[in-house]
Fold this sequence. Notes:
Layout: H1 11-21, H2 23-31, E1 73-81, H3 87-103, E2 112-117, H4 119-123, E3 157-163, H5 166-182, E4 197-198, E5 201-202, E6 211-220, H6 225-228, E7 276-285, H7 287-293, H8 296-303, H9 306-310, H10 328-331, H11 334-340, H12 345-349, E8 361-362, E9 365-367, E10 374-381, H13 384-395, E11 413-423
Antiparallel strand pairs: 1-3, 1-6, 2-3, 4-5, 7-10, 7-11, 8-10, 9-10
Helix pairs in contact: 1-2, 1-5, 2-5
Bound molecules: protoporphyrin IX containing FE.
Amino acid sequence: MSLPDPEGLSRREYVKSLVAVGGAGALSACLGEDDDIEIPSGTDEFDDLPAGQHEWDSFFEADEHGNVRLPRHHVLAYLELNGEPTDTGRETVESALKTLERAYEWSNDGLVFTIGYSPSYFDRYEESLPESVDLPAPTTLTPLEDLNDDDLDTYDALVHFASDEPVALLEAELAMFGEADALSGSDAEPQNTDSDTVNGVTVEDRLSDVFDLADRRTGFFGAGLPTANTDATGIPDDYPIPEEAPMFMGFRGRFKKSQPSEERVTIQDGPFAGGTTQHVSKIRQQLDQWWEQDSQAVRVAKMFSPTHEREDRVGEYGEKLTDSPEVEDVVEQTESDASGGMVGHAQKTARAREDGSPIILRRDFDTTDDDIAGLHFVSVQREIEDFVKTREAMTGTDLPIGSILNNGILQYISVRRRGNFLIPPREHRALPSPRPE
Ligand code: HEM
């Protein structure tokens, strides 16, 4: 992929498209004239970092209602081991990841990341994962999906990088995968980059010493970004999405009360206690239908519930909601709303709650990868089964609803790929065996 032409693009569009391209050329274009961008440094006091790699929330900014804000830019790096796991390989991976922790503050302004391992990675070992880990191979989950074996992600590992600062993402990737790999899509000469250091920290080991970068997916989340990224299949030319909307479908979400605590999604027992599991689906969005066929009233009813629409609970993009999607009372009406002809996405999905709280922690973000409007649905949960239960509640095959057209947002999304990973606690994050000490 060649570098985008800045001509005619806003700064936001240009920067987002540079993250999508990746590599040293994109990094130097991103820095532009401004090669003294200050990104907060990390730490040598590794014990100060959380035991769970997925423990991000208390390091993130939150709004006045306590809703945590996910970073604005994301990269998913899918990796294949280029040999077998060895102790030397483990040391290399650990040293590479520590380089990033030294280089960047664990925050929105710095960089957060997780590394997870797939069922296929663990298949190479004779011993199996302990019972305390629920990590099935990915599979089709709804009658609406038409996935072949090739559509199920069986890469060995996945690194999810997230930051508000595109320069931090691009630099961290270069540090981990080196110019050869990261540059493979770019024809620009690197400038302003020094691949031996990352935010002033010397790079001694890279993930690419042990892994090959097999696939790279990117995306964005936050006010202003959907309106700045409209040049992809599935996005209407002129769509009335408010500037404040953080996602393509136009509504705020992931409120304090529609996300579980990190403790609820953390594995409690066995050698991987303190870790979690991750599900990632690659979803295509039919936004032209969403924005052109339907009125705002129908969009609110389909996304939240018919009651939300009647009582005007949501507003233009969710500004009337504070720390909750206010679904508690409408969950009970899910069946009767379905019989009445329309049911909302949040309403029926909230049927999977336990003790009043959802059981999956969502960290999904929009994308225009492959020049198609989509969403990388990333969630972490104690067991993959928690994701499956939640997805079943969302699919709602049990509901008395005649047509997919009025069944939440199902009509507007199609799943293209799925993958499951185990995110070990930090102490076992480097090429773990199924039974680490
Ligand atoms: C394009 C795809 C999707 C969009 C735009 C979307 C958007 C939303 C919105 C706006 C809400 C209500 C606000 C909130 O509380 O966050 C919501 C709730 C939720 N969604 Fe989605 N969603 C999508 C796909 C999915 C998928 C694939 C799942 C997986 C099961 C999912 C699970 C949930 C859950 C668990 C809730 C919270 C329900 C509760 O309050 O208990 N969503 N989503």
